[in-house]
């Protein structure tokens, strides 16, 4: 009488039961060597979770700096100024100038974000002095827009306003520069550094989109509307310039 089936071990012979080792189970049951269909997906998900733990995005730092730069650089408010300064040029040139202005502003802010304190200390320039100087420069530009002097000289059509005043000090003004310097100084970890520079990149993308598609307004308002927008832009720019001068003077007085 057979008590043990073929290929099985009798429960009455424990000495013949093989020891379970990690390699023995693999050899005894070859089906375990097969890779399950969901294994690669789960492995990739685990790798993503691991990489996400390495760099965590600080949404609070990003939102704070992005909103600060949005208020200071004012993408909606830059639209009439951009239209006024680029009026009379071909649409292709205006689109190129919008990109150039954003690149100039991004380059200036990046340099001051990395070397801001060193540059100001080397030149012996304080932050309030930088704000007052930027305000005076903006005031001169605003007076030209209000009086219409920018339309009289013929050579102004060949001047690249994407560098000055669009790139700096309108976009990369003293307020934006100081905000970036302080944000970079406070960022003491990789997480906050990534959040700060992502916010800087995001606001420049927003600025480019606003100026790029503001060219559609020209087709609606025509030449008369451009003149009106130019006067309004001069008035708003003069108010911004005076406010910057006041802020700089107040900081000097409070520092004394």
UniProtKB/TrEMBL annotation:
Residues 1-21 are annotated as: Disordered. The chain crosses the membrane at residues 59-85, 97-120, 126-147, 159-184, 196-218, 225-246. One of its GO terms (cellular component) is plasma membrane. It is found in: Cell membrane. InterPro entries: Multi_antbiot-R_MarC. Keywords: Cell membrane, Membrane, Transmembrane, Transmembrane helix. Pfam families: MarC. The keyword Transferase does not apply. It comes from the Bacteria. It is a multi-pass membrane protein. Belongs to the UPF0056 (MarC) family. This is UPF0056 membrane protein.
């Amino acid at each position: 009488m057979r008590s043990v089936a073929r290929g099985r071990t009798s429960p009455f012979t424990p000495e013949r039961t093989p020891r379970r080792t990690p390699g023995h189970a693999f050899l005894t049951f070859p089906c375990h060597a097969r890779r399950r269909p969901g294994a690669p997906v789960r492995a990739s998900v685990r790798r993503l979770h691991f990489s996400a733990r390495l760099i965590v995005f600080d949404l609070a730092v990003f939102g704070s700096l992005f909103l600060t730069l949005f208020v200071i650089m004012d993408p909606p408010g830059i639209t009439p100024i951009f239209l006024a300064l680029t009026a009379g040029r071909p649409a292709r040139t205006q689109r190129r100038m919008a990109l150039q202005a954003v690149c100039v502003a991004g380059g200036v802010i990046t340099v001051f974000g990395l070397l801001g304190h060193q540059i100001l200390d080397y030149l012996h320039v304080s932050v309030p002095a930088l704000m007052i100087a930027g305000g005076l420069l903006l005031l001169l530009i605003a007076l030209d827009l209000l009086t219409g002097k920018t339309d009289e000289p013929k050579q102004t059509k060949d001047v690249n306003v994407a560098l000055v005043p669009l790139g700096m000090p309108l976009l990369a003004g003293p307020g934006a520069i100081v905000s970036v310097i302080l944000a970079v100084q406070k960022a003491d970890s990789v997480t906050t550094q990534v959040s700060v520079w992502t916010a800087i990149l995001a606001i420049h993308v927003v600025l480019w989109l606003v100026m790029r598609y503001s060219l559609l307004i020209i087709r609606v308002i025509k030449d008369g509307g451009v003149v009106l927008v130019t006067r309004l832009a001069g008035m708003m720019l003069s108010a911004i310039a005076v406010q910057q001068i006041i802020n700089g003077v107040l900081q000097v007085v409070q520092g004394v």
